[in-house]
DNA sequence: TGGCGGTACTG
DNA sequence: CAGTAC
DNA sequence: GCCA
């Protein structure tokens, strides 16, 4: 609901149009139907002025009353942004909030999460976790083809732009049907809007179709789908005249990683069920528990984000006493190898006691089990929250968090959040100081964001 | 026009 | 260092 | 390829 008082006529209708364009629903104060989730008012409106406008106070009880600036930013970012300082006030609540427990082994902060009544509203509220199906699937698929082609040919900044645009479009509740609707979105400029328009009109992208037919594009895609092969190597091999996996096996010089990539090629292209990812995580949890009781393991990545299938399994290992994680890595890997669970190493730093990351391949002990990618990181307990955040992703989510941190003069990594970071161009002049981040929620808080549970961290 | 996440490991 | 990956 |  937008309270028109104090908002210029022109601006009001502009805002209203945009809300609708983004899939929102405008609710008037007289309308009985429909849930009210947010109230937008002019910054200068007083509580009394507000009460006067709304006859029925029960109608707005507990609903946040926000400045127009909040709505503008939501529209610009195409997301429901934290209310924070945009919130002016809220009428006393009538509805209680509900506490819901989660069953996964998350740290205390996430054992309960608040579910308040005023959740969805306009659909730009889709914080990625709401399981709405993608109504612009055709568009995102076509753009995805180009994104991949650009990535495979080392044009990764362009690919990044495409991926961002795709993420943005996925959040939309309504199909895009015009150039203008696309162009309004943050991260979509003339070129992308053009392409989207073409997809809407023609049902496909000529450029993607044409490129996909090309031998080079198809070969680069094949090569880069081998683990350990990126755009540069693929291009090199193509230049050498290699065209298929057999050529690669017989004529290319392969790194250890690429040999494994080839050996497990078919299996690693597949995603596994969520259940299997859970089984794999359980194997590690059991081994860790036997080695050092009290050690905690967290299955992160897409598993923690609640996905129904997983491309790999990411397991974070730590110990609450802050010390026992040290020296745990080598015995753990040894034990997992001895049992035949770990089959190949992709990245392992054997001669350093400071190893923190292991990337490898595993296989469950059962009939027809497939090779699966497994990542393990061992972290000191003090870095648990930033590490969980990093390892849970998604990649795009991590990027945006770190970008925001930068803007605020901070720096976020899997080790911690620092404030007062001074940069001169790229290099840091001052490392700043570490902030206290006992929980993931505290990281959101430092950045002025509302907490987002893992399921809502897809974009 | 420069920047686009920040870091760990391999060869 | 470049390349690759998370 | 888009944005500040």
From TrEMBL:
<protein>
    <recommendedName>
        <fullName>DNA polymerase lambda</fullName>
        <ecNumber>2.7.7.7</ecNumber>
    </recommendedName>
</protein>
<dbReference type="InterPro" id="IPR001726">
    <property type="entry name" value="TdT/Mu"/>
</dbReference>
<dbReference type="GO" id="GO:0016829">
    <property type="term" value="F:lyase activity"/>
</dbReference>
<keyword id="KW-0539">Nucleus</keyword>
<dbReference type="InterPro" id="IPR019843">
    <property type="entry name" value="DNA_pol-X_BS"/>
</dbReference>
<dbReference type="InterPro" id="IPR028207">
    <property type="entry name" value="DNA_pol_B_palm_palm"/>
</dbReference>
<dbReference type="InterPro" id="IPR036420">
    <property type="entry name" value="BRCT_dom_sf"/>
</dbReference>
<dbReference type="InterPro" id="IPR037160">
    <property type="entry name" value="DNA_Pol_thumb_sf"/>
</dbReference>
<dbReference type="Pfam" id="PF14792">
    <property type="entry name" value="DNA_pol_B_palm"/>
</dbReference>
<dbReference type="GO" id="GO:0003677">
    <property type="term" value="F:DNA binding"/>
</dbReference>
<dbReference type="Pfam" id="PF14716">
    <property type="entry name" value="HHH_8"/>
</dbReference>
<dbReference type="InterPro" id="IPR002008">
    <property type="entry name" value="DNA_pol_X_beta-like"/>
</dbReference>
<keyword id="KW-0456">Lyase</keyword>
<keyword id="KW-0808">Transferase</keyword>
<dbReference type="GO" id="GO:0006303">
    <property type="term" value="P:double-strand break repair via nonhomologous end joining"/>
</dbReference>
<feature type="binding site">
    <location>
        <position position="314"/>
    </location>
    <ligand>
        <name>Mg(2+)</name>
    </ligand>
</feature>
<dbReference type="GO" id="GO:0005634">
    <property type="term" value="C:nucleus"/>
</dbReference>
<dbReference type="GO" id="GO:0003887">
    <property type="term" value="F:DNA-directed DNA polymerase activity"/>
</dbReference>
<feature type="binding site">
    <location>
        <position position="375"/>
    </location>
    <ligand>
        <name>Mg(2+)</name>
    </ligand>
</feature>
<dbReference type="InterPro" id="IPR010996">
    <property type="entry name" value="HHH_MUS81"/>
</dbReference>
<dbReference type="GO" id="GO:0006260">
    <property type="term" value="P:DNA replication"/>
</dbReference>
<keyword id="KW-0235">DNA replication</keyword>
<dbReference type="Pfam" id="PF14791">
    <property type="entry name" value="DNA_pol_B_thumb"/>
</dbReference>
<keyword id="KW-0234">DNA repair</keyword>
<keyword id="KW-0227">DNA damage</keyword>
<keyword id="KW-0460">Magnesium</keyword>
<comment type="similarity">
    <text>Belongs to the DNA polymerase type-X family.</text>
</comment>
<dbReference type="InterPro" id="IPR001357">
    <property type="entry name" value="BRCT_dom"/>
</dbReference>
<dbReference type="GO" id="GO:0046872">
    <property type="term" value="F:metal ion binding"/>
</dbReference>
<feature type="binding site">
    <location>
        <position position="312"/>
    </location>
    <ligand>
        <name>Mg(2+)</name>
    </ligand>
</feature>
<dbReference type="InterPro" id="IPR002054">
    <property type="entry name" value="DNA-dir_DNA_pol_X"/>
</dbReference>
<keyword id="KW-0238">DNA-binding</keyword>
<keyword id="KW-0237">DNA synthesis</keyword>
<feature type="domain" description="BRCT">
    <location>
        <begin position="1"/>
        <end position="88"/>
    </location>
</feature>
<feature type="active site" description="Nucleophile; Schiff-base intermediate with DNA; for 5'-dRP lyase activity">
    <location>
        <position position="195"/>
    </location>
</feature>
<dbReference type="InterPro" id="IPR029398">
    <property type="entry name" value="PolB_thumb"/>
</dbReference>
<dbReference type="InterPro" id="IPR027421">
    <property type="entry name" value="DNA_pol_lamdba_lyase_dom_sf"/>
</dbReference>
<dbReference type="InterPro" id="IPR043519">
    <property type="entry name" value="NT_sf"/>
</dbReference>
<dbReference type="Pfam" id="PF10391">
    <property type="entry name" value="DNA_pol_lambd_f"/>
</dbReference>
<keyword id="KW-0479">Metal-binding</keyword>
<keyword id="KW-0239">DNA-directed DNA polymerase</keyword>
<dbReference type="InterPro" id="IPR018944">
    <property type="entry name" value="DNA_pol_lambd_fingers_domain"/>
</dbReference>
